[in-house]
Every structure is written in C-alpha cells, then in structure tokens.
Amino acid sequence: MMKPNVNYAALKDSYLFAGIAKKTQAYLEENPGKRLYRMGIGDVSLPLCPAVIDALHKAVDEQAKAETFHGYMPECGAPFLREAIAKHYAERNVRLQPDEVFVSSGASDELGDILDLFDKKNAALVLEPAYPAYVDASVIAGRQIFHLPAGRENGFLPSPENLPAADLIYICSPNSPTGAVYTKAGLQAWVDHANATGAVILFDAAYEAYIEDPALPHSIFELDGAKTCAIEICSLSKTAGFTGTRLGYTVVPQALEREGMSLNAMWVRNRTTKTNGVSYLLQRGGAAVFTPEGQAQVKSQIAVYKRNAKVLTDALDDCGIWYTGGKNAPYIWLNCPNGMGSWEFFDYLLHEIRVVGTPGEGFGKCGEGFFRFSTFASPEDTVEAANRLRKLLK
Fold it and tell me: Is 1 inside any structural domain?
C-alpha cells in the first residue's frame, strides 16, 4: 500500500504568511473599502529596471525567428549568465569558476532542493529567528532539527559556541527577519567551526545587495576556507525585482567534498535529472542585471527601499522603540511596545491604523515579543504608515 510522507503531519498548521493573509482578508471583508498599508511580506513594489525589460523584449523577438530561436537551455544555466555572475563575484575579489555557479528559479526553490545532497540522518541547525522555510523544508525531509536562539543580548547574531552536533547549518546574512548582518570576524567563526566539524553551511545571501558598509561581507566566499564548507544561495528577487519573474543562482564550489564525493558534481547530476533549466528569456533578463547599466539601475531602485527604511526607523526613533536592521538590510526588527505579544501587536496595528507587519513569533519561539517591517512598499505608503505609527505609539 502507498505510504505518504508522514513528515508533513509534523508541520505547523499554518504557514506564517498564510496566517497573515487570512487575518488581513478577514479584516477587509469586515471593513470593505478600507485600504491597508502593507509593510509585512517582502515583496517589491518597483517594476523591473529598463535594462532588464529591454533584454526580455529582445529575447522574445529572438524566439520569434528560426535562426535565433532557443529551445531547451542547459540545466545548470546558460554559459552567458554563469560567466556574468562569476565576473560579478570577481569584482568583489571572490574568484569563482562559471561551472561553480548554478542558475535557479529562485532562492526559495533551492533552499528546499539543495537538501537532496545530504543524507536524511544529517541534522540541521537553524539560527533563530529564521525564515520559516528552513525549518519546514527540513521537517519535510525528515531530518532532525536543532534550534539556536538569538536575542538582543547578541544582536541576533549568535556565535558557534556550545553547539549540538549538527551537519547542516543555515545562516542568512543580512538576516531575514532581523536585518542583522554578520561581520567578517563573526562569519569567519562559523566557517572555522564548519571546517573543524565537517558541517556544511547553507548560506542564504538573498539580501546582500543591501549592504553598504564596506567592512561587511556580501558573500561567505570572502572568508578564508569557505569553499570547503559552504554553499551560497542567492536571489534576484530583492536585488532586481524578480519576485514575480523568478530567478536566482546557487554557488557550489569545486573544493566542497565529503567522503570523497564532490558536491558540485552531485548538484550537476541533481539538476540534470530533476530540471530542464530556466527559460532563455529569464536568463537573458538576469544577465542584464550584471551589466554596468543594469547595476546602476538596480542600485537606484535599492536606494528607494533604503530611503523607505530611513522613514520607518525615524518613526521608531521618535517613538522610543528599540529595533535592529534597516541600514544594511531591507528589514526592520523591533521590540513590541508595552510588553505586547507579536500577534497581539499585529492585530493592534491592523485594527487601529491599518498597517500590516509580520509577527516575530512566526520566525521561531525567540521571535515572540518582536515584529518585522519590510521596506519594500511604495514610498507613499511607507510615509503614510510611518505617520500612523507616530500618532499611535508616540
């Protein structure tokens, strides 16, 4: 008899963002015509930049002619995009071979799929508060999960001390949800730990483009020894507005081996077995991001979201509320005022001023009492939300 994957029964009843959607929909049904100011989910509000749009249009036109038509693409990514990404890393003094770069349909897909490389007996360590998919993907895979809580006392950046024996380590920097960013020394400690124990770090670099402090690392491969212990997963969603277009990339170094097996070669085999690659159109659009014109345009858009962050943090400063993030990251993580719980604060903001954020409890138990704002809304909505926060909380 067929047996289902019973690990699904161990998942929480409601995924965080589905719970938020349910509450906001109920509010709108009870209050028709009311407008919400959405500072919760990390979806962008600006359109794809002109360089990307031009590349997409050109690629569509190419598909209309037999002599320029492209069918199946290489499963691991088109050479022109893999080379462009490797060159982008080289500009930051990180040397990668193009065949160490794998084009994907987005970071969320890769975070789940990459677990195929590891035995189910390998335990995972999740640094919390954390993006819920780290936990859920590991639960679905049936692996043991250890939780390493962080808090205000360590700036939500825990160090590798007195850890359980975990084989996989999830690290996100700049972090979602907290906006905290590891220094080179802080991240080097994790690299050293992984190399000493044989663990592999799954490094989520989806928000690296928001780092403006030159002393902070954009990539884990800026650290000594990282190529023998880390995989980096990146996204163009928050960098270049590809949330609805879906494109990312994963770096699996040639030097990363375990028990005589190359994880790079294993990932090639995985991709060529389980995927038919990303479409030619999207890869041409992605390649445009890494041109000088594209880089200038996406940096201009990121500057808009950074100004949004300043608008929100100024409001929190005026209200005397503690927070982290918002400077080198697109998220702001704040302490709920007056001892409120995170879902209690969610309901308070929704019903009093129609501002929607994300309850910290959804990112792990140690997120209770905290709250996340995204800076991806329109500038107009962000200003309005900040003004409403001042009136309510000051």
Answer: no
Would you say 346 and 371 are in contact if contact means Cβ atoms under 8 Å apart?
yes
Whether 89 and 191 map to the same domain: the answer is yes
pTM of the model: 0.96
Check which CATH number belongs to the domain holding 305 and give it: 3.90.1150.10
| Residues 230 and 259 grouped into a single domain | yes
Q: How many residues does the chain have?
A: 394
Percent of the chain with pLDDT over 70: 99
CA distance 211 to 206: 11
For 12-33, the pLDDT digits (tens) are 866 788 889 899 999 999 999 9
Examine residue 119 and state whether it is found in any structural domain, yes or no. yes
Residue 264 lies in a domain: yes
Q: Which two tokens stand for residue 128?
A: 């919390």
Co-location of 311 and 222 in the same domain: no
- Domain enclosing residue 193, as ranges: 50-291
Is the CB of residue 256 less than 8 Å from the CB of residue 229?
yes
327's tokens? 């400077």
Largest Cα–Cα distance in the chain? 66
pLDDT digits (tens, 9 = 90+) for 161-179: 999 999 999 999 999 999 9
